[in-house]
Amino acid sequence: MGGHTTPQLEEFRAAQAKTVADSVTADHQPTMIDEMKQLSHSILDTPLQLFVQAFLTIKLIGRVFETATMYYCQRLPDELGRFDWVIDRKDRDVTPMEKLWTSLIVPVGIATSLKKPFTRLKGGDYSHMERFRANTGDSKMRRLSNGWTRTSTSTRRKFPAFST
């Protein structure tokens, strides 16, 4: 936080909220459009320090996932066949910040991995993860890749937000 000014962080948060809102078009299902608008408003309504915490949590989980898969592919590869996520809530109810990052973690992970696949160890046993592999030649994956990730040669929309 010390390396960024409040106006810079507010501008970044606003840009991320706009990216989420702009990620859907009239061609999407009405419920999806409403959800993205609500998510965009949620980003804007999240206090700045919690927005930064959510952003960093998403980045951290991605790094932990990459590191953990490298560990397990060498020692306990069958553990890579199933993933269970447990959220340590801070209250009886999910807080707005917890809801925000848990809403974004999967689409951010997908968009990030399409842009930069996770590092894999040569010789590691990733066979148990095959059921999670997406066919990037599939038309839905191409649309996801083309519409939701940053490219250096176009003005394609970024989704989900939190691109740096």
How would you describe this structure to a colleague?
The protein has 164 residues and is mostly helical. The chain has one domain. It is built from 5 helices and no strands. Helix 1 packs antiparallel against helix 2. It is globular. The C terminus is likely disordered.
Topology:
Elements: H1 6-22, H2 30-45, H3 48-75, H4 96-115, H5 139-148
Helix pairs in contact: 1-2, 3-4
Features:
164 residues
Summarize this structure briefly:
By secondary structure, the chain is mostly helical. The protein has helices at 6-22, 30-45, 48-75, 96-115, 139-148. It has one domain (6-148).
* Number of helices in the DSSP assignment: 5
Terminal CA distance: 15 Å
Number of individual domains: 1
Kindly state the number of beta strands.
Answer: 0
How would you sum up the global shape?
A: globular
Q: Low-confidence parts, pLDDT < 50 over ≥5 residues?
A: 145-164
Helix content: 55-70%
